[in-house]
Every structure is written in C-alpha cells, then in structure tokens.
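// run 5 | inverse folding | seed 20
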C-alpha cells in the first residue's frame, strides 16, 4: 500500500488548518503557499473534506476554511480513509475483503492481517492534536 499525494496533502492541509486555528477562516491560497501545494489541487481535496463534514467553508473576501471539530477528534486514519479509501495492504483482508477460495489454507493471509492491524493501529491512534505537538517539538528544536 502506498499513500498518494491526495492523502498526504489532505493531512498537511488539515494540520495547517489546525495550526492556524485562531477562530478566523484560513485562506486556501495561504495554505497553498505555506505547504507549497497547488491551490487547484487543494481545492479538490478541500471539497472532499468539506463534503465529509471535516471542515467548514466561509464564503466572501475574508472567507476560508475552519476545522469543524477539535484537532483531537480527527485521526490520521479518518483523513486517509476519506481520501484514499481503505488502507488494506491486499484485497483479501479488511472489512471489505474479497472472497478468496484459498483463504482457509493460505499461510500468507496471516501476514497481511498482521500488517493491516499494524497500519490501523498506527493511523487510528494518532490525532491532529498529536501532530500539532510534534510540530511544536520540531519548532522548539530550531529556536535561537
């Protein structure tokens, strides 16, 4: 499994909105500049996040986007599943697994299940709030 730019940029976008969460809407153009991502690509991603109710859109000259919930309520898994679909390493594991006639005698399925459990265990236990803390730690390392 490989996370696409859509998933990676969605995480960066959500983190940026959490970082600049002052109560005022955050302009997508500002996010694009800070994150060095095309504003056209961010528009596609924000549409998905908005439709899912992850962000709130404010129209107008001073408009932009705000997180709908506290950063602690968004997990990396939620964001990646929204943009990437499921995160399974192979199609024969997970909730929407394909029926496989070899499953009962397949030794490798255990590997795929362990990988799936490990992936979900990581992404479902890291929140945007955790990422904000990590970002602050990095910033503290570079202060003079």
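// decoded
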């Amino acid at each position: 499994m490989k996370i696409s730019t859509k998933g990676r940029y969605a995480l960066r976008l959500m983190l940026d909105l959490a970082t600049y969460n002052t109560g005022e809407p955050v302009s997508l153009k500002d996010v694009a500049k800070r994150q060095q991502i095309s504003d056209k690509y961010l528009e596609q991603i924000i549409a998905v996040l908005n439709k899912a109710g992850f962000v709130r859109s404010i129209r107008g000259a001073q408009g932009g986007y705000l997180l709908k919930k506290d950063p602690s309520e968004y997990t990396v898994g939620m964001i990646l599943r929204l943009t990437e679909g499921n995160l399974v390493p192979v199609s024969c594991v997970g909730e929407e697994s394909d029926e496989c006639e070899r499953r009962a005698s397949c030794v490798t399925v255990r590997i795929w299940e362990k990988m799936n459990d490990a992936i979900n265990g990581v992404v479902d236990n890291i929140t945007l709030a955790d990422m904000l803390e990590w970002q602050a730690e990095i910033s503290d390392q570079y202060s003079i």
